[in-house]
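Aim 2, interim progress: modelling of the S-adenosylmethionine-bound target.
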Amino acid sequence: MPALQTDILHGDCLEILKEFPDEHFDLVFTSPPYADRRKNTYGGTKPEHYVEWFLPRAAEFQRVLKKTGSFVLNIKEKAEDGERHTFVIELIIALRKQGWLWTEEYIWHKRNCHPGKWPNRFRDAWERCLHFTRERHFKMNQEAVMVPMGDWKEKRLKTLGKNDTVRFQSQVGSGFGKNIANWKDREMAFPSNVLHLATECGNKSHSAAFPKALPEWFIKLFTDPGDWVLDPFVGSGTTCVAAQELGRNSVGIDIKHDFSELAETEVESASLAMFDKATKQNGYSKKNK
Ligand SMILES: C[S@@+](CC[C@H](N)C(=O)[O-])C[C@H]1O[C@@H](n2cnc3c(N)ncnc32)[C@H](O)[C@@H]1O
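Predicted structure of the complex, ligand included:
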C-alpha cells in the first residue's frame, strides 16, 4: 500500500487550489471563518459580503472535487442586533445556483456548550454541517457510521404496535417505506442526521478548532482508506490529523502562517503517536509469538 501523504500549505485557498488538477479530492470538509462584523481575527468577512467572498472559493472546491465526492461545510450564523443573520441561507441558495446539490443538512449538537443568558433566545447548542454534492449518486459508506441499537432495542422495539409491523409507504411518496419490525433483532442501526458530540478538542491553540470526532465521522462516511481529503481552512489541522489516523491522504490550507505551522506540528505529533503505537503493537505481537 502506498505511503500516506499529508500536506499542509500556507496561503489563500483560492490561489493554492489553482495548482491542483480537476477532480482530485474525494471529500472537502471544512469550517470556514465565520462572518462577523466585529471580530478581526483571520480576516473576518462581514456577513453582507460573505456570499461574494465564499463563491469563488466554492467554485475551486467544486473543480477539485471528484464527481462522486462530497463537500461538507460546518458553519453557523451568529445573532446580531437581536436577530439571526441570513447569510448562511443566502449562501446555500447561491451554492445551488453554482451547481451544487444541497444533499443534506447534518446538525452537530454540542453536548457540553457553555451556559448563558440572552434576553430573546437561549444558548447556541448546535452548528450546521451542510452537505453538498456534485451529483445525486456519490460515495457514502453508511455501514461505517452505524450505531448500537441500545435504547431502541430495550424500549421502543419491545412494544411494537400494529403500524410498526407492516410496511408503510413513505408519505412523501419517495418509495422508501418504513418497517420498524425489520430492526427488531439487530444489534446496529443507521444513525440520524444529528451528531451528539462534545465541543472539547485536544487543541487549545486555535480559538475555533472543532473536535476531531467531527471530521472523523464524515471522513468515515464519505471516503475509503487511501482517498484524498481537503480542508481549505485547516486552522490547527484537525481534519488532516483525523484523515491521517484513518488512513486517508489529505491537504490542509491556511492563510495564517501561525496556523499552518501549528497544523504541521499537530500532524507531525499525531504521526509520531501512530508510529509509536504501531511499534509497540508490533513488539508486543512478536513477543507473544
Ligand atoms: C474556523 S477556523 C478553522 C479551524 C479548524 N477547523 C480547526 O479545527 O482548527 C478557519 C481558518 O480559516 C483560515 N482562513 C481564513 N481565510 C482563509 C483563506 N482565504 N484561505 C485559507 N485559510 C483561510 C483562518 O486563518 C482560520 O484558521
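The CA atoms of residues 35 and 47 lie 5 Å apart. The chain has two domains: 6-146+190-287, 148-187.
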